[in-house]
Amino acid sequence: MKSYKILIFIFTIIAILAVVAWLFPREGVKIGTTELRFPSIEEVLVREPLEAPIDPEKLLQDSIKTAELNSLKDTLKHYREVFVGDAGQFYFPDDNVAFFDNVFDAMRDAQRSHRIIRILHYGDSQIEMDRLSANLREYFQGRFGGGGPGMLPAIQTIPSAVVAQRATGDLTAYAPYGDAGERTSSGNYGIMAKNYHLGSSATINIYASKHQAARERVKKFSSVKILVNDRSGHFKASVKAKGQSEHQLESTGKGIQTLQCQLDTPATMLTLHLSGNSDIYGIMVDDGYGVNVDNIPLRGCSGTIFTQIKDTVLQRCYQLSDVGIILLQFGGNSVPAIYNDVSISKFKQATAKQIRYVKSKCPQAAVVYIGPSDMSTRKGGNLQTYPLLPQLIDSLKTAALENGAAYWDLYAAMGGKNSMIQWVRAGLAGPDYVHFTPKGAEKMGDIIVNSFDEVYQFYQMRKKIDKKQLDTLWVEK
After folding, report:
1. Which of 69, 99, 126, 220 is 20 to 30 A (C-alpha) from 304?
2. What is the pLDDT of residue 89?
3. CB 222 within 8 A of CB 288
């Protein structure tokens, strides 16, 4: 057949189909149970628009956003489990995970603003020889800068791992606890819960520590600040580092104040000559700007002595020292004297009172109570955890949280009930089943540092996330 005839045939068929489509009823034709339908011309000629082509870049971005959102949800779930409830070592009042935000903000800005933000680590004999303080100092100074051994008493009555000191002259110790010094009805004890009264003159030598436990950051100092209460208005001090010029300091009159100087270059040995009727509350020996952790061991203390420090004295000392965090590590000395619910309740009330007092005198600081470790006693010839210790720890945790302080659970960090026995067997605690060995203190120091670092990492993460999105995702279960 010729091609033009084929073309005529095709067009003829199309025309016939078009006529049928035009004439055929839209609703179709029913023949018995069978329904016949024929597409209309519009259905034949008009097609549904094709979907837009897939953009692989957009698809990839959507996939990344979904993955990031799921990862964020998983991360927030982790932090919620750690910081809310009973899963971790840190507990915050009202589950406030932003508890340290203000002080972290200040620490990040400390070097730029030429500040030394202090972390005061008060504790009983468990923190002597810079235990736990050393780990915290190394961590915070590694993140935010700073150096030096920190705040020191005029006389070191307890061996220290951060410095060696020698003092001569007319200095009299006053303290509200143990045999650390004489008592005074005035409550004039100061920021370290100890005051050395200078009657006329004294000389204090400070040497960088050669102790094996001393960290490198504490072995040099470039600034000296004396926290003093000048009784007569004539206090004077000279500060001399080996091989450097001597710095002369004078008070501005009576009252509590700080006198400070910057050394020519970082030093490892200092000599201070002091004169004038005054109270020496502390000597801050630092290196650079940033953070310092001040180890303040109060041997034999239950931690219930802060209210014995005169309020105006303590408040002024805190103001002049730029305090960011106050750690209160107590409770261990009271455990053997806890016999029943009444004694637990009394100690809880006393602790709550101390927390409220310290917070009222230093409202800008974040206060953290660090409870006692596991401790063992013999019952029926067998070593075991003191029976009421877990109950005491729960009460101390409640006392902290109800009064606006955070709680760090050292007992849980060790492993809980009867963990002290395992620590002694591993050489991490001593034969008294109370105190850590240097190896154990290092391990516990690493644990508390990890807790602080987790809080800081969460702080950094929250800084990068839209607050509305964070608030929404945080409450999702």
Report:
1. 99
2. 83
3. yes
Q: How far, in Å, CA of 444 to CA of 448, rounded?
A: 6
Q: Distance of alpha carbon 466 from its chain centroid, rounded?
A: 23
Give residue 381's pLDDT band: very low, low, confident or very high (50, 70, 90).
confident
76 pLDDT higher than 70: no
Strands (E), 288-442: 290-297, 323-329, 366-370, 376-379, 382-385, 406-408
Which residues 6+ apart lie within 8 Å of 452 measured at CB?
Answer: 136, 139, 140
Half-sphere exposure of 226 (CA within 13 A, CB side): 27
For the cut 90, the answer to whether the pLDDT of residue 224 exceeds it is yes
State how beta strands 116-123 and 323-329 pair.
Answer: parallel
Q: Could you tell me the two tokens for 270?
A: 């200092």
The neighbour count for residue 86, using CB atoms within 10 Å, is 8
Pairing of the two strands 255-267 and 221-230: antiparallel
For 421-436, the pLDDT digits (tens) are 999 999 999 999 999 9
Q: How many CB atoms are closer than 10 A to CB 444?
A: 22
Is residue 451 within 8 Å of residue 90, measured between CB atoms? Answer: yes
